[in-house]
């Protein structure tokens, strides 16, 4: 079981955003989509999420052909760079939202949300409003909210991109620990080489709509597939 992307192509007008992309993302893995800005990372993530339709090819999620399924039928959770929290709702209600609209029993929601808030260490902030959290805490809330409905797949698009370097590093370690506890299949978009190398089990390097290399951080380091990968990984400081 996995996410299977087969021969996916996507154009915007005459511009080729994704050119015959095939990649297999194993279940339970933390995978980074890494590449320079404009390379097609977000487009591929949005196609996995169902927020964008591929022109050609096929997307399979955990054995189900998802190519033509709408986002709400794909059982995916998302976290974006600029996470749109409900400003007037408490942290608790923000995390509970996906469960409330699914009309889960109140006691079950309460228990699940307590569990999630503990997981992201926000128990003591449950009754605050999102505006009363720091940027890093808000992204942790976003992670809890995305995990609430027990998605098969968690998709993150530059989730820490808007934060300062120190908080980014904290959240990076933090995502790794969270993933080690929850083991949900996770695809994580970043243009930051160091972030991908430190966090991911496997890295998919994308540039100009094509996959340059797929491999573990060690494999990318020890045997870059081509000059692009070698230059892009560069000396990591
Ligand atoms: P990345 O996330 O790697 O920075 P994107 O997937 O967002 O790259 O974009 C890849 C290319 O496709 C970029 O050149 C971008 O301008 C273009 N693109 C993305 N979405 C659209 C769109 N809705 N309309 C036109 N061009 C788009
Ligand atoms: Mg992007």
List the helices and strands and how they pair.
Elements: E1 2-12, E2 15-26, E3 30-34, H1 41-49, E4 56-61, E5 64-65, E6 76-80, H2 91-101, H3 106-119, H4 135-148, E7 153-157, H5 165-182, E8 185-190, H6 193-199, E9 202-207, E10 210-215, H7 217-222, H8 227-233
Parallel strand pairs: 3-8, 3-9, 6-7, 7-8
Antiparallel strand pairs: 1-2, 1-4, 4-5, 9-10
Bound molecules: adenosine-5'-diphosphate (ADP) and magnesium ion.
Keywords:
alpha/beta; 237 residues; translocase; binds adenosine-5'-diphosphate; single chain; 8 helices
Structural features, described:
The structure is a single chain. The chain is of the alpha/beta class and 237 residues long. Helix content is 36%, strand content 27%. Strands 6-7-8-3-9-10 form a six-stranded mixed β-sheet, sandwiched between helices. A four-stranded antiparallel β-sheet has the order 2-1-4-5, with helices on one face. A hairpin with a 2-residue loop joins strand 1 (2-12) and strand 2. The N and C termini lie far apart (36 Å). The mean pLDDT is 93. Bound molecules: adenosine-5'-diphosphate and magnesium ion. Adenosine-5'-diphosphate binds next to helix 1.
């Amino acid at each position: 079981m996995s996410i299977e992307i087969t021969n996916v192509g996507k154009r915007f007008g005459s511009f080729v955003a994704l050119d015959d992309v095939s990649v297999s993302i194993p279940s339970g893995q933390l995978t980074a989509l890494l590449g320079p800005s404009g390379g097609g990372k977000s487009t591929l993530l949005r196609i996995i999420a169902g927020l964008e339709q591929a022109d050609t090819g096929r997307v399979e999620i955990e054995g189900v052909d998802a190519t033509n399924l709408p986002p709400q039928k794909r059982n995916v959770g998302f976290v974006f760079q600029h996470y749109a929290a409900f400003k007037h709702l408490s942290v608790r209600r923000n995390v509970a939202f996906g469960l409330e609209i699914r009309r889960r029993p109140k006691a079950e929601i309460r228990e699940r949300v307590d569990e999630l808030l503990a997981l992201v260490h926000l128990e003591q902030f449950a009754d605050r409003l999102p505006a009363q959290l720091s940027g890093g805490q808000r992204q942790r809330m976003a992670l809890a909210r995305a995990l609430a409905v027990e998605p098969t797949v968690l998709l993150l698009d530059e989730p820490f991109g808007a934060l300062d370097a120190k908080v980014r590093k904290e959240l990076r370690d933090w995502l790794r620990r969270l993933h080690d506890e929850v083991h949900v299949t996770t695809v994580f978009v970043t243009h930051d080489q160091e972030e991908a190398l430190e966090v991911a089990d496997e890295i998919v390097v994308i540039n100009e709509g094509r996959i340059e290399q797929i491999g573990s951080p060690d494999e990318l380091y020890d045997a870059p597939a081509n000059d692009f990968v070698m230059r892009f990984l560069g000396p990591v400081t």
